[in-house]
Design brief:
It contains no helices and 20 strands. With 266 residues, the protein is mainly beta. Strands 4-10-9-6-7 form a five-stranded mixed β-sheet, with no helix packed on it. The protein has a five-stranded mixed β-sheet with strand order 12-18-17-14-15, with no helix packed on it. A three-stranded antiparallel β-sheet has the order 3-5-8, with no helix packed on it. The mean pLDDT is 96.
């Protein structure tokens, strides 16, 4: 009999029971006595989500949602942006504010958990695309025409977001300060110019999937809804003629220029 004993538990994690019985000098054997212990040789299982599983972000500071479980209880966690350099161990929690590397691109955040017995988990990770740059783009009114005779025009739209999250929405305006509602990005748009003849400007701006809003892009066109002014003189303004063939003297003016003419006797 002694007060201590080195002993090997059965393998495989779980609750383990060790039994003991004693014999006295007269040969009497006791009933068995026991104690239990939880054998835990494995690190916690777990997961991490960046911004609740979002595909894109325009902010370098993100929120990590964490989940971990372990038979002995989860005690600590640590983080990394490259899987090699780690933050210090800290108390386990369900969320964590974390800073991504500053350059745009696909980012991975890694996490490890440690249980109450010191077992360290495997590495868990999640990815997100960091996109801090807005889209670029163009707009053309009536295919780039110089002038139009109607306020109802067609806008040709083009936008790109480089290697970012992609163009998602667009909005339009006639003055660069008042904008239409955001709508799904497309290559064309029916639009109404401000009334009143003269040079008109249409503005467009774009939003990408990460929420970055571009500066405004624009195109101009001259709106001319009024026909030319003009006059005609027959034979230089003569009051009478004895010949059916006459000479017409014509004069016309229009802000956009006069292009054609036609005639009638009735």
């Amino acid at each position: 009999y002694g007060s201590t004993k080195a002993w090997a538990l059965d393998s495989a994690d779980g609750t383990k029971t060790v039994f003991v019985r004693f014999k006295d000098n007269a040969g009497n054997v006791s009933s068995s006595f026991s104690d239990t212990v939880v054998l835990d040789t494995s690190g916690p299982s777990g997961s991490v989500l960046i911004n609740a599983g979002a595909a894109f972000t325009k902010e370098t500071n993100v929120t990590l949602t964490l989940s971990a479980s372990d038979g002995a209880g989860v005690a600590q966690m640590r983080f990394s942006n490259d899987g090699a350099s780690w933050s210090g161990w800290e108390s386990y929690g369900a969320s964590k504010t974390w800073g991504l590397p500053l350059t745009d691109g696909l980012k991975t955040v890694y996490v490890q958990f440690k249980d109450m017995l010191g077992n360290v988990s495997e590495v868990f990770s999640d990815t997100i695309l960091l996109d801090t740059s807005p889209p670029s783009g163009t707009v053309m009114i009536e295919g780039g025409a110089i002038h139009t005779g109607t306020t109802s025009v067609t806008l040709t739209v083009s936008a790109s977001d480089g290697s970012g999250s992609g163009v998602s929405e667009m909005a339009f305006g006639n003055d660069g300060s008042t904008w239409s509602s955001w709508e799904a990005y497309g290559s064309s748009k029916a639009w109404t110019l401000d009334s009143g003849d003269g040079t008109k400007t249409v503005f467009v701006r774009f939003k990408d999937n990460a929420g970055n809003v571009s500066s405004s892009f624009s195109d101009t066109i001259v709106l001319d809804t009024s026909g030319p002014s003009g006059s005609v003189l027959i034979n230089g303004g003569a009051e009478a003629t004895n010949d059916t063939d006459v000479s017409l003297t014509l004069s016309a003016y229009d802000g956009l220029g006069v292009s054609e003419m036609r005639f009638s006797n009735d």
